[in-house]
Amino acid sequence: MTLQLDVSRRQFMKIAAATGIALPTLSFADDFEENRGSRVRWGRMQFDVTRRGLNDWFHHPEGDLNMIERLRQITNVNLEFDWGTPSVADLDDMVRYPFIFMHAQQSPALSDQQRDNMREYLRRGGFLYIDDCVLSYSRPDVFFNGMRRDLEKIFPDARFVKLKKNHDIFRCVYPMRNGLPHMQGRDHGLWGVYHRDRLIAVMGSGDLHCAWAQWFGPSDEQLSLQMGANIYVYAMTH
Amino acid sequence: MRIEALEDIQWSFPGGLTGLIAALIACFLIVWISYAFTLVHLRRWARLLLGLCRAAAMILILLCLTRPTLVTETHLDADPRPKVAVVFDESGSMDVEGIHGATRRERALWYWNQTLANQDEHLELDTFAFADEMRTVDQPADAAPPVTDGADEADEPPVRGTALYRNLADWAHRFSSQGYDAVICLTDGVDTSADTRQLALDAVHQTGLRHAFVPMTTELVSKPFVEIAKLESASVGLVGTKVPVNMLIRASELPADEPLSITVRDDDHVIYEQDIKHHGQTLVARAVMFELPISSDRTMTYEAAIHNPVETLASVKWTVQGVREDKPSVLLYQGALDWGTRHLRGVFDRTDNAEMETRFAAGAMPSPSGSAYVEDPFPGPTEIRRFHVVMLMNLSRQQMTAKMESTLRDYVSEGGGLLVINANPASAAALAESRIEQFLPVIFADATSTNRRVPSHMDRYHDITVQKRVQSIRLHSSFARDPVRTGRDALHTLSLTRDGRESPIFGFAVSGGKEITDGLPRYASLAPVLRAKPGATVLARAEVGHLATSDGQPPIALAVQRYGKGRSAVLTTDSLWRWRLQIEADSFAYDQFWRHLVSYLATAIKRRPAWMLESTIHPPDQLVEVRFLLPETAPQSFEDLTFAAVSDDASSVLRMEPTEKPDEYRSAVTTQAGHSWRLVAREGEAVVAEAYITGRATSVDPEFKALKADRRGLAEIAAASGGTLIDPDGRFDYANWLPRYPSEVVQTERKALWHTSWVFGILLGLFLVELLVRRLNRMI
Q1: pLDDT value of residue B146
Q2: Minimum distance, in Å, between the CA of residue B418 and any CA atom of chain A
Q3: Is residue B522 less than 8 Å (CB to CB) from chain A?
Q4: Contact: B585, A58; criterion CB under 8 Å
Q5: Does position A123 have pLDDT exceeding 90, yes or no?
Q6: A221 to chain B: nearest residue by CA?
Q7: B400: domain range?
Q8: How confident is the model at residue B474 (pLDDT cuts 50, 70, 90)?
Q9: In chain A, where are the structural domains located?
Q10: Do A85 and B457 lie within an 8 Å CB cutoff?
């Protein structure tokens, strides 16, 4: 007797791949977590931008996975191979993530409530990494400037400091002798946002994230991942 | 009471009346058959006579079988009316004038006259009245004359407080033993004593005495009040640090638009100001938290005052003794990167309370080629003495050397504080039977009992990513939009043990000896340990659901112990940074937990003589226990110290007695309304330690603070007793509310009606007549 399954070749490959990969991961997870600290998940912020109806916040999620994997490989951060997408409109969701990545092309359109959420999140000790995805050559830093304006409203007493090349953030893991790697757009360097002497966010306009997603070639990818690791580890330890 | 005899004839027959009728029919048939067939040869008179004789005999026998009995019951008729105690509330709140003029007591008297006084036919009523104590009154109008809030009038008697719950508990037992069937209480339900409703509930539950409450809900003219209910502050602070202060403010019955603010001053300056939101008439309790900068090494007196634009409504004084000493120095030594570092630095490093140095063990920090990172060595035996407390976070067994373990053991035994933080089951299990375990308060579980973690569902993409094929995945936008939310994100709340509730470490999360659930630390993960060591103190346990310890109790979350002159502790959860993110930015709870824990661990080094007060402010006229800490390491001896309580116009020597703790002594002072006692410990003329304890000012008598009638509380007690809440404006069927007493049978006399000799004589006579007739007719 022959058992006939009504599956396409593509579906069969998917099932086989999933089975083959899923089984080893059961032991993989335990081995990975040994001698690591408390488990944490990468967060990508959901937010609206000024151009209505445009989902501008979730470009290239595979770039996030690349960054996550790099952090898992070179550090002993107990970072899940996974991410969450907290919404700036939901403070309870945001506070699940100690580090949230924000990336877009357009200027953010935050309501007063959302600004309040962001203020509360950062005051509780949360951290934002803001990276501009570069809209166009004529308007290369729309998101960077928009976020800066919003952060100035959120924290009128915050200090915005362009981080010098000898700052620890450029050498805490990988030595970045030229400071923040620049991929495209306008080069503002890396800015730190300090509130009461505490670094609460860093923001750059060089589109590191697209490089994480291999948009600019292997060399830039490595450079951008190294800078990403520096930012993450520095935020954890300061 | 009267005696009455009731007679009744009782009979019984198998089958009852039906059986008796059937038997009579059968007898009639037998007699008729004998008359119609067996006696047909006899003469007519003999036949008739025999038939009648047989019928009479049958009937007599049947009637005897029914055993007719005359039962005479003698009844003793008592008063059939249920006995009810009517209790009137005559406390101060019952005498406050209502918005329509009448007081609640007048309303209660009106109800008595209109309703209860007419129930004489149905209920036997005795009247009582209570305020602080209960008393018997002949008439409800005999209750004590009303008095008013006489704070400003010296001639007025004091306002009567209401001890409803205590009195209710007393009268429940008393009335129950005196044979009362129920209690009707006319009260507004306001209890201004310190008793809890549970006291009354327990009493009615034990006695089962039925209670009906007639709530007096007359709306009263408001009497605004503001008070500082509680003030918690350390009595000693290091110069250059900040001492957290927690205050609880209560306000009610205020004009809705009246601005209210609190100002905290030291001798010269305003240190803190804040507006206090209130809701007019509704009772609100506001927590105010701030920090006092300790700038000099002298005792500073602070005064917090609550005021409106016109006047000060409440105030309290307290002191903080500034001591000059190096800031507590903490070493955070990490085995793995953790977000706890950022948040712990937020507590210690970025504030002026302590200095925290962060170091990473070998392998903790990534060190790719060219990295500026240089491995931090663990401090040696000399360098480690710079630190008051050493925290080992996420340190694995492999990262510990014999030298490090030896250094730590000497450090703790000589007075240092050690805290091990490890929520990773595998890493924690590896510490089992290690040298460091010897001076920690717990036995770690072995590796076989580790709590395995669940892999992420995204792990299936892992290998694809590693192989650099992420472009081919092109994760769909809908997937990216679907945030992963699993139960693993849920935080668990620590559960405090009795020691934990009494420990100053959790002082911020305990009020009145009970945990404030929302204020307790929460954690995400936990590494179970086997058990606490003898002599260790478990302060907090994990939630139920994790693996239990070897003694079957919930897993240990925080345990401490003394080791030598120092102290060691183990926190089996993560470093609680997720809790920091979940609580409001303005909350000090996270900071307080860590500061208190570090302070506790560093105590052996830093402790100095100090007064220990649970709160600086207390209700007036209360005997409050005060404790004095005299550490073993202090240069003073107990015998050299004198203790006194000093106020503006009085001074008394305090006799300090030893407590169950070797370095603590206790005494007690009675608080006075609006006055402060200055507690002073002296060595000769030199002041060693001082503190203030204040009696809450009574600008408004407690009796007038909560003027809203407590219908809910009364309903709860009534329900617990099987009673009811009676609408004072409605009708209530008192006639059928309680069953009437039945009359009591004191004697029962039974007299058989047919089992008598003459009945048997008649039967014998009938039998002889039968024989005679038969003989005359030659039938025998």
Answers
A1: 52
A2: 19
A3: no
A4: no
A5: yes
A6: B468
A7: 329-366+375-451+490-601
A8: very low
A9: 38-237
A10: no
Task: Measure the CA–CA gap between A210 and A59, rounded to whole angstroms.
Answer: 8
* Residue B392 at interface with chain A, using a CB cutoff of 8 Å: no
**Cβ within 8 Å, pair B585-A74:** no
Same-domain check for residues B181 and B313: no
Same domain? For B397 and B543 the reply is: yes
Mean pLDDT on B137-164: 61
Asked if A174 lies within 8 A of B466 by C-beta distance, the reply is no
Closest alpha carbon to B520 in B592, B417, B459: B592
* Between B561 and B544, the higher pLDDT residue: B561
Query: Could you say which residues from 355 to 374 on chain B have a Cβ atom under 8 Å away from some Cβ of chain A?
Result: 358, 363-366, 368, 370-373
* Whether CATH 3.40.50.12140 fits A38-237: yes
* pLDDT range class, residue B603, cuts 50, 70, 90: low
Q: Are B219 and B98 in contact, with CB atoms under 8 Å apart? A: yes
- State the smallest CA–CA distance between residue B383 and chain A in angstroms: 23
Flag if A173 and B398 touch (Cβ within 8 Å). no
C-alpha A94/C-alpha A91 separation (Å) is 5
What residues are paired with B316 via a beta bridge?
B304
Q: Which of B193, B289, B292 is nearest to B248 (CA)?
A: B289
pLDDT at B151 (0 to 100)? 42
CB contact at 8 A, A195 and A157: yes
Distance CA A229, CA A70 (A): 7
Both tokens assigned to B761: 């004589």
Is residue B40, in this structure, part of any structural domain at all? Answer: yes
**Which among A78, A20, A62, A213 has a CA at the least distance from the CA of B460?**
A20
Same domain, B112 and B187: yes
Q: Which pLDDT does position A8 carry in this prediction?
A: 42
Question: Would you say A80 and A97 are in contact if contact means Cβ atoms under 8 Å apart?
Answer: no
Tens digits of residue pLDDT in B349-403: 776 667 889 998 888 877 766 555 556 689 988 888 888 899 999 998 888 989 9
* Same-domain check for residues B61 and B35: yes
> Is residue B425 located within the same domain as residue B549?
yes
